[in-house]
Amino acid sequence: MTSIEHITLEVADPAAAETFYTDVLGLGAWVRVRASDAPTTGFRGFTLSLVVSQPANVDALVDAALAAGATIVKPAEKSLFGYGGVVRAPDGTVVTVASPSKKNTAPASTEIDDIVLQLGVADVAAAKRHYVAGGFTVGRSFGSRYVEFKAPARTVKMSLLKRKALAKAAGVPVDGTGSHRVVIGGGAPGADPDGFVWEAASA
């Protein structure tokens, strides 16, 4: 089964980004950074989703991110699907933090249960076929609207939504041009239909 071992964010200030993702959010095992000045504007076509066990953990991570220079996109609040909020990291990456639970059952912590790379694509069905051909295994699929792939423990999960739907869910305008500013380290399933860059996990 193909999987994503890590992602690399291309940023203007690698030292600051390393501190933010490793020291503040605790994502050092899954998120790498490297310098880039590739042109990019607006929505980059992906979000980094952090899934936690309870609302208090959402608040703890959002507060830590804001204290480290992130900006609020959507304040954390209850919804039909649980509790969550959205921030924009100092490098521009849109980060969602969410819990399927609406109640706290333990003291707050910043422990993360799952990391999901959500890709906004032009055609969900076509992208699904591409990734399945590249070795990914579908976990859940809702027609041409949403696909979630299976992933081994301690790896980055991946899901697909239409670009417009992902932008709406994140609370950001859909328009954007230039580089995605993300490199996906995993099975490298060949030329990506939406221009996302892949490289071997060992790179």
How would you characterize this protein structure?
By secondary structure, the protein is α/β, with parallel strands linked by helices. It has a single domain (4-195), classed as Roll (2,3-Dihydroxybiphenyl 1,2-Dioxygenase, domain 1). The protein has helices at 14-24, 55-67, 124-133, 163-170, and strands spanning 4-11, 31-35, 40-42, 46-51, 71-79, 82-88, 94-99, 114-121, 138-142, 146-149, 157-162, 176-178, 182-186, 197-200. The strands form 3 sheets. The protein has an 8-stranded mixed beta sheet, with helices on both faces. A 4-stranded mixed beta sheet has the order 2-1-13-14. A two-stranded antiparallel sheet has the order 3-12. The longest helix has 13 residues, at 55-67. The model has no long low-confidence stretch (mean pLDDT 95).
| Sheet having the most strands | 8 strands, mixed
Number of domains: 1
Estimated share of beta-strand residues: 35-45%
Q: If strands are numbered along the chain, what order do they take across the biggest sheet?
A: 5-6-7-4-8-11-10-9
Q: Helix tally?
A: 4
Question: What would you give as the CATH superfamily?
Answer: 2,3-Dihydroxybiphenyl 1,2-Dioxygenase, domain 1
Any idea what the CATH architecture is? Roll
In helices, the fraction of residues equals 10-25%
Query: What does the overall shape look like?
Result: globular
What would you report as the Rg, rounded to the nearest angstrom?
16 Å
Give the termini distance in whole angstroms.
19 Å
SSE class: alpha/beta
Number of strands: 14
CATH hierarchy, class: Alpha Beta
Order of helices and strands: EHEEEHEEEEHEEEHEEE
CATH structural fold name: 2,3-Dihydroxybiphenyl 1,2-Dioxygenase, domain 1
- Write down the overall mean pLDDT: 95
Low-confidence stretches: none
